[in-house]
Automatic annotation (TrEMBL):
Keyword Ribosomal protein: no
Single GO MF annotation: pyridoxal phosphate binding
Protein name in UniProt: Alpha-1,4 glucan phosphorylase
UniProt organism field: Citrus sinensis (Sweet orange)
Co-factor requirement: pyridoxal 5'-phosphate
Lineage per the UniProt record: Eukaryota, Viridiplantae, Streptophyta, Embryophyta, Tracheophyta
Catalytic activity reported: [(1->4)-alpha-D-glucosyl](n) + phosphate = [(1->4)-alpha-D-glucosyl](n-1) + alpha-D-glucose 1-phosphate
Biological function: Allosteric enzyme that catalyzes the rate-limiting step in glycogen catabolism, the phosphorolytic cleavage of glycogen to produce glucose-1-phosphate, and plays a central role in maintaining cellular and organismal glucose homeostasis.
Pfam families: Phosphorylase
Keywords: Carbohydrate metabolism, Glycosyltransferase, Pyridoxal phosphate, Transferase
Amino acid sequence: MADAKANGKNEAAKLAKIPAAANPLANEPSAIASNISYHVQYSPHFSPTKFEPEQAFFATAESVRDRLIQQWNETYHHFNKVDPKQTYYLSMEFLQGRTLTNAIGSLDIQNAYADALNNLGHVLEEIAEQEKDAALGNGGLGRLASCFLDSMATLNLPAWGYGLRYRYGLFKQKITKQGQEEVAEDWLEKFSPWEVVRHDVVFPVRFFGSVMVNPNGTRKWVGGEVVQAVAYDIPIPGYKTKNTISLRLWDAKASAEDFNLFQFNDGQYESAAQLHSRAQQICAVLYPGDSTEEGKLLRLKQQFFLCSASLQDMILRFKERKSGRQWSEFPSKVAVQLNDTHPTLAIPELMRLLMDEEGLGWDEAWDITTRTVAYTNHTVLPEALEKWSQAVMWKLLPRHMEIIEEIDKRFIAMVRSTRSDLESKIPSMCILDNNPKKPVVRMANLCVVSAHTVRGLFLELLR
């Protein structure tokens, strides 16, 4: 304990000798040390008398983030001006690893930061150990997604990643006297220095409700409950390149109007904040248990929340980059890649947005959707392919079930009219399994029917 206090005083003394000066693009160790010192004093998160490893990590991360933001903004403005076709990678998981070591390595400033921290009385490796892994993924699926983002950034490709901002991730393991225990991740217990909240990027996402038929025959999803999707961005730098792309994470919040002040003042505290509580559940953990109907609804909410917010963001960007655009241009500017079946609801949601919100007819919306969406499959095990109860789907997403039914009906008609030899395979190929004992929606089948490209081995199951 005495040694720790002595070290803390020594580090604070060294910090005091370094002039605090904002220098976001610093390359030399002395200038970097000054920039770190600047963040200790002017971006404070801890008591001003401390400069222990944890405090040093956050100040160092904010210093690195200065450099990343400059490249990040340049990348955004470049692609906004050039207006290329962009890849949008939708995944329920991203296993990023520690950002500090990855960022300084990609920026080729690792040695400079090591020297700067030595000047401040710290060792880079010890500071890097203070960072908690972002609890956004669990295993291979998330690691693959993160590798794709790193690769696209390094190859100077115009790309975005889209995921959810899980507060507690999946779990972390803890060894106690009672044995192995699973407890919630705490990566956001303080804060993440890499996140940038975009207060101007907020989209409404609806659940439940009903379908209203307008006098002109068009349909609209109304009622139910609406939560707000708020964007948090994390920069993903390419390796030794200036291209820095975005991992956009969505968090769910209810609005102030959804807080019932009358009920709260009447002592009905839980009822007053009911929608706020339900909104917070959406991004609480990765893969919530789904053994109950409530669990199934929550997991399906997560998947739809990711898809709806991301698609609204893509459509807004498509419109903003060039006024007066034709919808036929959409697939030449937007490429949506679904990582496994979790983001499958992007297919009926894109159809709904194009038809119900933008006024397109079925044929045009279907042509755009099938030329926009691609699908990556990760398994050939039938038991691992997602199937959602039709009853749960009708309850949570009634308009999307109407659209899925129509896609399935048209697919079956197409097979019968063009490939009569496949008649016997239709029960295994169609999207809706209408088994009266357990009617389900086959999400992988919906992807294969709707996507222009399928990567993986799913087609083996249909042979």
